[in-house]
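Reminder to self: tokens first, then the designed residues, so the page reads top to bottom the way the pipeline ran.
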């Protein structure tokens, strides 16, 4: 992974952009999302947290995601003045979203109205490893004063959905430094429990209270000039959707949490694993690089990784537009990215449709049809939740017909299922859930298509196609052609079931009444459904009568700042050939391999695309029509080899939220556009085609300036890495790898790590940071440890000697003690006492350390690394690492120290090295570990890093390079040895 293009940075706070930035700086973890409002609040803010699946009833739009209590509030008061960006003076300001590690930070230098200046550093994360854990951390440094500072942390329960209240208070309580609450949704009765605690690195007077129904904790301390104090607010949140007593579970979870640094390392490890699969590297265009990562970040924080009864709403979990409802945006725009990079999440999203089949059946039944008819807008049950009326721009009610007649959603879901199955080969899921979706929706179409005896064909009348500018149309080609596909696919799926899962085929045949007559009708529909097409021109009519509409030259409206529909009105637009989004072109994209199924189908696909592109593109409202369109236009422009045009469309899609190109980003992230942007890069610029034997690069179309494009795709449990480079107009494609896909993360800390890429060659050695173990590598304190353990052992009457000491090499203090104690039964209190005693001896012994105790070769190597610009860290299990490095005189040379306090799990767990890499801001794959213990070597490999082992060969099995020590080892020599190493990082279970 390259290091550039990971940070979205804001250097000035502009109040007019408040709501756009709230969307832009939203954080989430697949369970919930929180808009980027400030910890201290701001007048007019839209503080919002949405949790997947937490809906409540509401008039008109039926149901909406509920704004949950605001967990962010953290107020800092100096001499009675409360920090806020709208008071006092903001001397410095920087907000930064680190996409690589999922951390939102803010540095502010603020002068209070009374003239006291503070530096505040906020870090916020919604844990990816522990989805129910949310953290705000603040480092407070008084710059020009000493005095009392009070920090007040609360959970704001007085929240609503833009005026609509959804919560009732059920219960609350508090202790000295923690508090909790229990609320219930007024209608859906979903319960929510939250608990919070506040810790302060300084001795502080802590109080807790319930202020206006809000659990509130505060800490007051005497601040010193220049002295930084850290406060940590940790919140846990559960709902009755997962556990029966959410408030109780929230409290229990809170007290059992590990330290901030351990939580941080676990969080980072999940992000690391996700990016290994999902990252897209673009070289030569830093805007596109950042934009694509931002879009993928948005998808990854919205994607439910551990639940299969929720899906991703059209505005993800970041805004109020569409009220948290789910559209075709998910299956057509988002699912392909997940199917090909995180298939288990794609399956979760498709299972959501399976569990909602009953709602779809009710919808079909109420409309007088058979089978399952998916709702245009979906929430928790699968029943239709599209509002029937909304208020138009002129204040008049407008009837929304999509819920009644925008039928293509039913096939879009089936299409998503089919694509997932083709790409993953997940037969198990297909026979259990996917097949039923495809078959029962086919039953619906069988009853919906009408036979026209005059024309001797089937028709589907009175629909809305993807282009919503035209309502109540007949024989929309997109819908009809997709239904044709659906009929054929359903027959194929049933055949497959009969062959491979006969019992399931029999059960579904009975359950869905799949009689011979019904199947014959499906086949008849597939052959005789009306598909409009002019063989002379090649142009496909969008629906019957489209060509008779008034034609409009959209260039005459250039410079407009609203949609054509907003300019002309709904009725006028309906009568004109103006598209909100691609319709025929959308069809050609979705069925790229076999666009038409008519007697004229043998026409060359590209000619067909060209003719329809030339006709429909100038008639489409690209700027203010639907945000779903630009990414699709980008892909098709690539197919037509129009890279410049493709790039323009792509940037319109990729920057829609970052740059707020449509002026509506404040309403939430444009979810479909995020997935569409990925498809544009992979299928458009990358030229990927999905074939029966796997993904291939057909013809790449890198935009001008792009020198390299790199991404990975999963296909049938294999991982393919594509590397496309362009030098002086010559494009080279390398399919780098083809290996079994590992399970890269689990609910908790990842157990295994795997570097999927082939070992870099000498010329592309990626190392940007070196992480040294301390004892035995930088200095030899083992003698001091040995003496300290010996003294303890003697006092305890335990036999101990140098040989026994050797077997404790690399072990953390506690593990060493347990090893030393052997079978002896001791209490936890005794363990703690003995560890302290041993450490006391050790601290006495090491006071004599000086620079002379650095091991041979260390100092020159550190100097060489510094001169080369390589970052340096210590990754040690020792709790004395800070002290030891100071005594050795090398603190100044180090960029980071991760020690026994940083993480909870010790080597061979990878945590301490991952923590160090995170502190250095580096990708683990770009780091080298230098270790002298087998457990440390294993930890480095588990972290997916390069590893140099120091010591006898028999001590290590898998280090990339083994040396006796660092004496006379130069960085140049080391990189050469590493480049020659034959070992590729392999997963090792911890
Ligand atoms: C688009 C639909 C889309 C919906 C939600 C509408 O404006 O026309 O295609 O599904 O927004 O994003």
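Designed residues (990 positions):
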């Amino acid at each position: 992974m390259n290091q550039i293009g990971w940070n979205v940075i804001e250097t000035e706070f502009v109040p007019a952009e408040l709501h756009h930035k709230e969307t832009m700086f939203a954080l989430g973890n697949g369970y919930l999302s929180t808009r980027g409002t400030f910890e201290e609040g701001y007048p007019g803010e839209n503080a919002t947290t949405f949790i997947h699946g937490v809906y409540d009833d509401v008039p008109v739009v039926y149901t909406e995601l509920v704004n949950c209590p605001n967990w962010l509030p953290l107020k800092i008061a100096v001499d009675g003045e409360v920090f806020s960006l709208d008071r006092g003076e903001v001397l410095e300001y920087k907000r930064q979203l680190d996409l690589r590690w999922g951390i939102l930070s803010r540095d502010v230098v603020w002068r209070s109205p009374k003239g006291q200046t503070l530096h505040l550093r906020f870090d916020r994360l919604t844990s990816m490893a522990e989805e129910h854990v949310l953290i705000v951390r603040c480092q407070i440094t008084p710059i020009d004063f000493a005095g009392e500072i009070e920090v007040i942390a609360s959970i704001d329960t007085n929240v609503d959905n833009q005026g609509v209240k959804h919560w009732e208070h059920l219960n609350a309580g508090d202790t000295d430094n923690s508090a909790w609450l229990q609320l219930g949704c007024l209608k859906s009765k979903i319960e929510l429990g939250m608990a919070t605690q506040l810790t302060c690195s300084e001795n502080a007077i802590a109080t807790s209270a319930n202020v206006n129904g809000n659990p509130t904790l505060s800490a007051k301390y005497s601040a010193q000039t220049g002295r930084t104090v850290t406060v940590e607010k940790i919140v846990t949140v559960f709902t009755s959707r997962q556990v029966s007593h959410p408030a109780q579970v929230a409290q229990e979870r809170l007290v059992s949490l590990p330290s901030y640094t351990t939580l941080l390392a676990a969080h980072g490890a999940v992000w690391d694993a996700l990016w290994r699969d999902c990252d897209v590297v673009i070289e030569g265009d830093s805007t596109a690089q950042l934009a694509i990562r931002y879009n993928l970040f948005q998808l990854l924080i919205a994607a439910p990784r551990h639940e299969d009864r929720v899906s991703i709403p059209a505005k993800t979990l970041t805004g109020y537009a569409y009220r948290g409802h789910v559209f075709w945006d998910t299956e057509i725009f988002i699912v392909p990215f997940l199917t090909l990079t995180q298939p288990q999440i794609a399956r979760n999203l498709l299972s959501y449709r399976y569990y909602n089949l009953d709602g779809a059946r009710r919808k079909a039944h109420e409309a007088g049809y058979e089978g399952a008819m998916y709702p245009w807008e979906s929430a928790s049950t699968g029943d239709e939740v599209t509002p029937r009326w909304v208020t138009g721009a002129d204040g008049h009610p407008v009837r929304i017909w999509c819920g009644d007649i925008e039928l293509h959603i039913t096939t879009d879901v089936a299409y998503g299922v089919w694509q997932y199955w083709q790409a993953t080969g997940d037969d198990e899921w297909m026979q259990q859930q996917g097949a039923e979706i495809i078959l029962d929706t086919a039953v619906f179409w069988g009853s919906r298509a009408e036979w026209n005896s005059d024309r001797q064909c089937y028709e589907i009348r009175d629909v809305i196609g993807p282009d919503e500018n035209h309502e109540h149309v007949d024989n929309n080609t997109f819908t009809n052609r997709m239904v044709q596909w659906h009929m054929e696919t359903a027959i194929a799926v049933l055949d497959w079931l009969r062959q491979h899962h006969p019992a399931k085929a029999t059960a579904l045949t009975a359950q869905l009444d799949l009689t011979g007559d019904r199947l014959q009708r499906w086949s008849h529909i597939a052959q005789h459904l009306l598909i409009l097409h002019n063989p002379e021109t090649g142009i496909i009519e969008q629906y019957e009568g489209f060509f008779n509409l008034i034609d409009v030259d959209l260039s005459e409206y250039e410079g407009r700042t609203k949609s054509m529909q907003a300019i002309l009105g709904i009725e006028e637009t309906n009568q004109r050939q103006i598209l909100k989004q691609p319709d025929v072109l959308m069809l050609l994209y979705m069925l790229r391999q076999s666009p038409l199924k008519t007697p004229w189908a043998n026409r060359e696909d590209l000619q067909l695309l060209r003719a329809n592109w030339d006709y429909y593109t100038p008639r489409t409202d690209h700027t203010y029509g639907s945000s779903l369109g630009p990414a699709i236009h980008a892909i098709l422009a690539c197919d037509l080899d129009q890279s410049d045009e493709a790039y323009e469309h792509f940037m319109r899609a990729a920057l829609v939220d970052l740059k707020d190109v449509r002026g509506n980003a404040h309403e939430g992230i444009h979810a479909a556009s995020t997935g569409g942007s990925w498809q544009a890069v992979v299928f458009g610029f990358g030229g990927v085609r999905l074939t029966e034997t796997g993904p291939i690069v057909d013809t790449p179309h890198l935009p001008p300036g792009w020198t390299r494009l790199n991404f990975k795709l999963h296909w049938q449990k294999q991982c393919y890495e594509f590397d496309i480079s362009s030098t002086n107009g010559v494009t080279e494609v390398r399919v780098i790898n083809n290996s079994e896909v590992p399970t890269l993360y689990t609910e908790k800390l990842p157990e295994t790590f795997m570097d999927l890429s082939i070992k870099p060659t000498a010329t592309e050695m990626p190392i940007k940071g070196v992480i040294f173990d301390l004892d035995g590598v930088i200095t030899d304190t083992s003698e001091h440890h040995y003496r300290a353990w010996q003294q303890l052992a003697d006092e305890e009457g335990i036999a101990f000697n140098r040989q026994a000491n050797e077997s404790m090499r690399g072990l953390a203090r506690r593990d060493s003690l347990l090893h030393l104690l052997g079978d002896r039964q001791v209490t936890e209190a005794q363990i703690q006492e003995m560890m302290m005693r041993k450490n006391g001896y050790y601290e006495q012994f090491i006071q004599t350390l000086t620079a002379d105790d650095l091991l041979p070769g260390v100092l020159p190597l550190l100097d060489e690394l510094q001169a080369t610009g390589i970052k340096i860290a210590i990754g040690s299990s020792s709790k004395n690492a800070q002290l030891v490095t100071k005594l050795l005189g090398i603190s100044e040379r180090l960029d980071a120290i991760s020690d026994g306090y940083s993480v909870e799990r010790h080597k061979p767990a990878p945590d301490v090295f991952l923590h160090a890499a995170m502190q250095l801001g580096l990708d683990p794959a770009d780091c080298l570990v230098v270790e002298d213990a087998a457990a440390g070597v294993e930890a480095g490999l588990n972290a997916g890093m390069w590893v140099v082992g120091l010591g006898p060969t028999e001590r290590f099995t898998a280090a990339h390079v083994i040396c006796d020590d660092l004496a006379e080892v130069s960085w140049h020599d080391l990189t050469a040895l590493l480049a020659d190493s034959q070992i590729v990082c392999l997963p090792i279970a911890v």
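Confidence is low (pLDDT under 50) at residues 742-764, 982-990.
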